[in-house]
Every structure is written in C-alpha cells, then in structure tokens.
Amino acid sequence: MKEIKYPQLLITVIFGVVIWLIPPPAGVTPEAWHLLAIFLSTILGIILKAASMGTMSMMAITLVALSGVLAPGNPGKSITLALSSFGDKVIWLIGISFFIARGFIKTGLGKRIAYIFIRIFGKSSLGLAYGLGLADLVLAPAVPSNTARGGGIIYPIMKSMAMNFGSVPEDPATHRKLGGYLTLSSYNMNLITSSLFLTGTASNPMCQKFARNLGIEITWMSWFAAALVPAALSIVVVPYVLYKIYPPELKSTGDAPAMAAEKLKEMGPVHKNEWLMLLAFVILLVLWITGDLFGIDATTTALIGLVFLLLSQVLDWEDVKSEKGAWDTIVWFSALVMMASFLNSLGFIPWFSELIKKQVGGMQWMVAFPIIVLVYFYSHYIFASATAHVAAMYSAFLAVGISVGVPGTLLALVLGFCGGIFGTLTHYGHGPAPVFFGSTYVELKDWWKCGFLLSIVYIILWMGVGAGWWKVLGIW
Predict the structure, then answer these.
(1) What is the dihedral of CA 24, 26, 30, 34, to 10 degrees?
(2) Residue 444 to residue 70: CA distance in whole angstroms
(3) pLDDT tens for residues 84-99?
(4) Which residue range forms the structural domain that includes residue 151?
(5) What's the CA gap between 132 and 243, in Å, rounded?
(6) Residue 233 included in any domain
(7) For the chain, what is the domain count?
(8) Residues 314, 299: Cα–Cα separation, whole Å
(9) What Å distances lie between residue 474 and 293, 365, 467, CA to CA?
(10) TM segments (predicted)?
(11) 296 and 249, same structural domain?
C-alpha cells in the first residue's frame, strides 16, 4: 500500500498516547511502559492499515530514538539502540534469502519445477493439487517469501491450468469446476510448507530470534526435524480433505500433463543459469542441514549462496538493488524485532509472564500448553499479518508458557509452526492470501468455512500426531 489513511493513523496515535499516559503498573519501569505504548500502537497501525508496514516501522524507530526510552538522557546511544536490529543476523537471513529467491524467478527454474510436477501428477484434479503443492514444497526452503513463492510462481500456473479447463474468474458459474478447489489447495499447501522450514516464511526466523532471547536455541535442522511428520501428513491429508468438503466439479484433468509438457517444450532445455541456480539451491540445503556439524551459521550460508549467484552472474547487483520486497522486509522486520527484544530486556515480558502465572495458579503444564497454543492460533482472526502477530504475541505467550512449566523448546517450536498454518483461517491471514482470494474463485463465506474446518485438521495433525513425534525426538 502507498497511501496514508489519516483517520486510521489518528486512531493509532490516540491509542499510543493513551497507553503512554497511563501510569505504569507496579513492577514495570516507565521506559518499558512507554516502549510498550510505541510497540502496541505500531501493531495497531499495521492491523488498521493506517500506512505501509515500512512507514509505520520508520515512525516507530523515530519515536523510540526521540523519546529516549532505551537510553534516557543519552540521545546518541538512544538512536544507536533504536537502529540496533539492522545488524541482526536473523534480519539479514531473511533479506538475503529474498535475493536468492529472485534467482528462481529470473532463471525460470521455479516455473519449470512446477510444470514438471504437473506433468507427473496432473491427470486428475486431486493429482493436480498435489503437483502444485509438491512444487511449492521443493521451492520453500530457499524462497522465504511465501507471497513470492505462492503468488509469484505457483498462482499464475494454477490459474492458467484452471482457465484451460474452462474455470474462468469472470464467470462465477465455472468457479467450482476447478478454480475454487485449486485456489484453496494451493494456498494451504503454501502455508504447510511455510511451517515446515525455518526459511519457509519471513516470520519463522523472528520466532527463532525471540526464542533465543529467552534462552531457547532453534536451528534450521531442529525446526525441520520437529515439523517433518506433521507437515508431511498435512501435505497428504489437506488436499484430500478439501476434495471432500469443497469438491471440484471436474474430477479428471487428463489434458493437464500434456499442457505442462507443452509449456516445458516452450521453455526449451535447461539452460546454464538454471543449472547454476539448482547448484546454489543444493549448496544452501546441504549447508543449512549440516551447519550445526561444521559451525556454519544459517545467515553465513545465505551469504555464500548469494555470493555464488552474483559471481556466476545468475544475479547481478541491479537484481539485488531492485528487490524491493527484501529491503522493505529488512526495514519493518528490524523495527519490530528491536521493540519486541527490548520489551524483554527492559523487563516487561518477564513481568507479564509472572502476572499471568499468578492468575493461572497451579495449572499443570499439559493443561496450559494446549490452551496457550489454541488462543495464540485463533487470535489470528484479528491479524492481517503473520509477522505482526508473531511480533505482538510470540514472546509473551512463550514466556507465559515457560513460567507455568511448559517445556520451552516444545512451546517455542509449536508457536512457530502456528505462524504458517494459522493463515488458513481468513482471506487476509497471510501474505499470499489476498493474491489467491483475489482470483475470485472462492466466495468469502466458503473461504472462512473451509478455513475453520481445516484449522481443526491442522490442530489434530500438529498437536495430536505431532505431539507423539516430538516425544520420540525428546523435545518433551
């Protein structure tokens, strides 16, 4: 969004001023309380879409520096601390991964992978859904923008396939023929793969950062290992469940493999830059998986991949400069991470967790655990951004859970996994949601109905089956 919505911005400012003027509760320093006012008003502005996330974030950084909440009476140190997260390795992991993702789009490798899967699985509408989902799965580890992955690579191919079978956005009578089913399936497969990999969507490394602030270390491999079984089951089950609750009228899509083969023929043989992109992808995966063994950090791995693509000329510096999504993400990510991190170090998060601990009394952690996760999951109805949700609630909910005895690594991972799959609830719940919903293939009531039913499926698979898998891994 480019415009400023001044009525919403005014509401945001008033909200922040009111919190600022309220005397801080006993046990909370004025600096922590005033930072909370800036933080919550920023989150509200993002929810209300008062301005772009970048604009809201720059306002927040300015207010933090100007107010001196991080270093009272020391303007120089205040601005340094307000900008401190721009040097955080987690921020740059996401930014660099955006640049790497540009290689998949520029070389056409992402599109080729999608057509290969359609050629193999696309003889039925259900198979077509699996083919598109598996293409998303292959791309997900190195394409952290699930909006770019879903909206930029998968969605255009999905829409083309639907239209080729007579399911046209402009004709509502044809929506249920194929387009509606493929829309919901492709979107949800995107959410599953977002939860499977630490680098699957932008908010996941934010969870990693906040967990580290509370003494919990999550690596790329530990995240993947914990998510593997519930995510694999979700990939198998969700398209089939949708096939039953929102079935396509067209069951057979026998021409799809031929269409995919024709598209691949038009693309020609795999060219040099695609091979180089594939090699970079393999290098990234190997180093992310084995990084713990060789002491190579995930961000260092991303830098290696980017440098390889630049030196091989798959990407040039103009590609890096023009990747607006990456630079945008670095800015607003840095602002949100900075404020959330200092809320912890200034004592607000520990104070809040102790307050909740007193309220829940002697509740057993096995009772508290599902309550915390379910509240966190379904509160996503009020958020139009997974990142805003994570920034606003992840640290607090994790701290509360730890304070009542929930194993920290278990809760940190499960709340992190929610950051992808809770997007199923609404047509605005995750980055690619407006892209897929904008196809007009699925009516609003159907989207919400299917989203709620699928949320139950996800909870059963991740909290039920997943719990057994995590016990095997020794996470709890």
Answers:
(1) -40
(2) 44
(3) 989 888 788 878 877 8
(4) 89-324
(5) 15
(6) yes
(7) 2
(8) 20
(9) 20, 17, 10
(10) 9-26, 32-48, 79-101, 113-132, 178-200, 220-243, 275-294, 300-317, 329-353, 365-384, 396-422, 451-470
(11) yes
Count of residues for the chain? Answer: 476
Same-domain status, 73 and 94: no
Could you list the mean pLDDT of each consecutive 10-residue stretch along the chain, which spans 476 residues? 87 96 94 94 88 91 95 92 88 82 86 90 93 92 79 86 88 93 96 94 89 92 96 97 95 89 92 94 86 81 93 94 86 86 87 78 85 92 81 89 93 96 90 86 93 97 95 95
pLDDT in tens, 311-346: 999 999 999 999 887 898 888 888 888 998 898 889
Q: Per the structure block, which two tokens stand in for 132? A: 């598109």
